[in-house]
Amino acid sequence: MPPELHSRPRLAPGCRLGENSQQRVLLMPERALRLNGPSLEIVERCDGQHTVEQIVRELQKIYSQAAPQKVEQDILGYLALLEERRALDFEL
Amino acid sequence: MGSPFLLTMTSTIPNPLALIAELTHRCPLHCVYCSNPLELQSRAGELPTEIWCRVFKDAAETGVLQIDFTGGEPLARPDIVDLVRAARSAGLYVNLITSGLPLDETRLAALVEAGLDHMQLSFQGAREETANEISGAKSHTQKLRVLDWLRHRRLAVTLNFVIHRRNIDQLEEMLALAESSSATRIEFANVQYYGWAFANRENLLPTREQLDHSVEFLKREQQRLQGKIRIEFVVPDYYATYPKPCMGGWGRKLMLITPTGDVLPCHAAQVIPGLSFENVKDHGLRDIWEQSAAFQRFRGEDWMQQPCKTCDRREQDFGGCRCQALLLAGNAAATDPVCSLAPLRSKVDALLAAINTPTSVQNLTQPSWLYRSNPA
């Protein structure tokens, strides 16, 4: 299920950004995800303030060479993956 | 997720990823499947606070991201709040794996304030009588109290149920307990058969019918709870077709430090003859990780025998578990006998056949348990 465009994703308790040997990571229970470029840009905006739609718009600007539709799809897919891993809460 | 935009987005961190810190072997519970060795280390030999604090910094510098405080019962250490604070300020993600005894609200608040990231609370069953029988202690009511306190804290919570024949039929009640709590994860981990659990395995192994039923139930529930509670399920590997990639491969991801400071590649490594282990009092973690003969012994593929040596799956499961190979095949370098390709799989099948005869199931209504003892 893709997330609602108007919801505001926020990192769930126990999920936070960390750093290790100059590599940014998303730390969460029993797991860590390496964050590079776009994934870091997305996770940094999961602050309970940005809506999904705003995240999409902002990244479409940053990655203006990529097809906007593709950027949106990938962001929705990535947010769904984080939700499935229980790393995000969505506030309406 | 194979698009060029996301090409570098999700991959797991290279090793060593995590450090398991067995702070003590003391524990108020006596679980019949405890993962501690049969020979428990005494309180007198436990590492002092300052050495642990040095180890946390060393671990972070070695690339470790997460630390698991476990035991025994890590809360049995009076300095646990200081240890959590030191590990967090060293830059580690701090997991506490606990029975919830001895804990009160004030101590919980102090742990959270000190930087605890995630608590894994163990349950021995969904019903008090089962839980108390398995843990050999009156513990269940206290755990329910802890769950209640956790509702008011912003802390990641996993409920951990160790599953076996005596409680595998309670999964629905266990899940209901999790749903009524603030937990975002629940682990149904079937018993792994080493040490105390190995001694009790004929009373603990579920029947095939129980297992099939539980797998079917949990698949349904995973769908229903998606995005709410993440359900992790560890199958009993005796019933598996292929072995588990034990510890993510020997010396590939994890290090474990015993209460006295010995550094091991896994919980049970001390049972393997001929291995000796370095101690954090004498060596840094980077040196041990890279140079310890014990860590190198089963790293990579050179040690493998057939059928592992040429098996297509050798980079997926690394030949399974070395300690299980020793326990079941008498040789730590053998293919893990739970593998369907292993020469000695028939040993596992014979045990399963005995477990799955109707008479044996009936005979086990009153098991005589070997309870885990307590160290000096």
Question: How many strand elements of chain B?
Answer: 9
Radius of gyration of chain B, in angstroms, nearest whole number = 21 Å
If you consult CATH, what is the topology of chain A?
A: Arc Repressor Mutant, subunit A
Oligomer: heterodimer
Helix count, DSSP H or I runs of 4 or more residues of chain B: 15
Give the overall average pLDDT of chain B.
92
Beta percentage of chain A is 25-35%
The CATH class of chain A is identified as Mainly Alpha
Radius of gyration of chain A: 13 Å
CATH superfamily caption of chain A: Coenzyme PQQ synthesis protein D (PqqD)
* Biggest beta-sheet profile of chain B: 9 strands, mixed
Percentage of residues in strands of chain B: 5-15%
Which sequence of strands runs across the widest sheet of chain A? Answer: 2-3-4
Strand order of the largest sheet of chain B: 7-6-5-4-3-2-1-8-9
Poorly predicted tracts of residues of chain A:
none
Summarize the structure.
The complex is a heterodimer of chains A (92) and B (376). With 92 residues, chain A is of the alpha+beta class.
